[in-house]
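User: Design a sequence. Structure:
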């Protein structure tokens, strides 16, 4: 690709203490937490709603907020989960799990950020960063109907999911499998409506029976494999996180564009296959919606002041600077070379690694949110500093909510000082998180 040098003067909006880029779960709680601390906070979101994969992405259910004994991802995350459960009749808050009504969740997130005092700009896409060449972001660029605008604040929270700002500022990163470079497949979620809910709940089991019948028939080659998560998200309405697409990098707009079109074909194939192989529930179902966002499970992992390792994960380690907890298992989805084994029903990806026992969890240290060598940027969400298998556990929306609240609070603390996110008092950060309801056990001798 050739290059073009353009010189122009841009409007500059520098009325902010903290700017959060990306309005997914991590970005929402980051913006709310920063504003709650009194920071003038701006949240930039590329789409027309907050919530990312739980709203625009149509992911039909939360992964766990608990450790099978108690809720461990609390604070703002606990509020979001409780209010989300109240919008769906078949939620199971006692199990720290529940399906998602995406429209209800949009309103929950709107209220969360506006009540805290943050300002939101929808349909505003991050377009680059300016730096001083020594690890400090001096401004960011964003595109909207108003054109290209520069924004400036002492501190930025990178909640893009891909570490876009941190990388632009010079942060090192890793991506994919260390040997092959392969990243997990993506999924385009979708919703089927006019489902017979009784037939869905009490008829032939969806997993493994229905999906295996579909795959064994060979009649629907567009359905790639046995990935087949589904949940009743409303009256006679089922949300699906089903099917995989490989070799799609969320930082590559060409690959994502092609995957969006392929994903819509996969969704239609699922509807037709279910109408044939599970007519009791789906004979009259129709494809009501496909997601506006591709479901990307991994891209970049920023190299931070601390890399959270598999050793930490399996040691159930608690750190002196823990900012949230996780008990969700390592969930690395089917690789491309595992497709045939998956279609034959011989692969259980959730059995690759040991699962925690009830009551067990591990901590996520603040140092995993601070990009090494970048002074005034925090990363929150799936791009934080960790090993690839650990990323496959902490990438889920519940944990992102917890990481985001900590990042926003830390950003506000840094903005009051000199903007250095590496220099904040983590004891003070943890004390504020505890005041807001976080679950943060004290580190013992095994901690770091």
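Assistant: Done.
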């Amino acid at each position: 690709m050739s290059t073009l040098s353009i010189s122009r003067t841009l409007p500059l909006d520098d009325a902010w203490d903290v700017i959060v880029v990306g309005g997914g779960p991590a970005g929402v709680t980051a913006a709310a937490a920063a504003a709650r601390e009194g920071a003038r906070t701006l949240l930039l979101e590329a789409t027309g709603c907050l919530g990312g994969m739980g709203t625009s992405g149509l992911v039909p259910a939360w992964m766990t907020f608990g450790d099978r004994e108690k809720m461990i991802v609390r604070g703002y995350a606990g509020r979001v989960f409780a209010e989300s459960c109240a919008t769906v009749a078949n939620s199971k808050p006692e199990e720290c799990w529940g399906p998602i009504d995406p429209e209800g969740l949009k309103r929950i997130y709107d209220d969360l950020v506006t009540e805290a005092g943050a300002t939101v700009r929808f349909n505003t896409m991050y377009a680059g960063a300016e730096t001083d060449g020594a690890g400090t972001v001096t401004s960011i660029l964003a595109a909207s109907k108003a054109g290209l605008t520069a924004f400036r604040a002492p501190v930025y929270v990178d909640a893009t999911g891909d570490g876009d700002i941190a990388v632009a500022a010079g942060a090192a990163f890793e991506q994919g499998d260390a040997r092959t470079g392969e990243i997990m497949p993506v999924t385009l979620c979708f919703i089927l409506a006019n489902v017979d809910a009784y037939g869905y709940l009490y008829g032939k089991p969806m997993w493994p029976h229905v999906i295996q019948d579909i795959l064994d028939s060979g009649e629907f080659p567009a359905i790639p494999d046995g990935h087949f998560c589904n949940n009743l998200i409303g009256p006679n309405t089922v949300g699906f996180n089903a099917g995989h697409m490989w070799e799609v990098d969320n930082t590559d707009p060409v690959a994502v564009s092609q995957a969006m079109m392929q994903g819509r074909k996969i969704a239609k194939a699922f509807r037709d296959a279910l109408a044939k192989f599970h007519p009791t529930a789906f004979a009259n179902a129709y494809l009501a919606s496909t997601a506006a966002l591709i479901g990307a499970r991994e891209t970049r992992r920023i190299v931070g002041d601390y890399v959270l390792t598999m050793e930490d994960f399996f040691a159930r380690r608690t750190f002196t600077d823990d900012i949230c907890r996780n008990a969700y298992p390592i969930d690395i989805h089917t690789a491309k070379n595992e497709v045939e084994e998956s279609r034959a029903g011989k692969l259980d990806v959730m059995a690759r690694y040991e699962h925690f026992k009830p009551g067990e969890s591990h901590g996520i240290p603040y140092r995993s949110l601070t990009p090494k060598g970048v002074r005034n940027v925090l990363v929150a969400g799936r791009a934080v500093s960790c090993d690839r298998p650990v990323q496959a556990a902490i990438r889920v929306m519940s944990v992102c909510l917890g990481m985001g609240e900590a990042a926003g609070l830390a950003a506000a603390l840094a903005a009051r000082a000199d903007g250095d996110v590496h220099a904040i008092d983590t004891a003070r950060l943890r004390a504020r998180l505890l005041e807001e309801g976080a679950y943060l056990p004290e580190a013992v001798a095994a901690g770091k």
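The longest helix spans residues 253-277. The longest strand covers residues 137-144.
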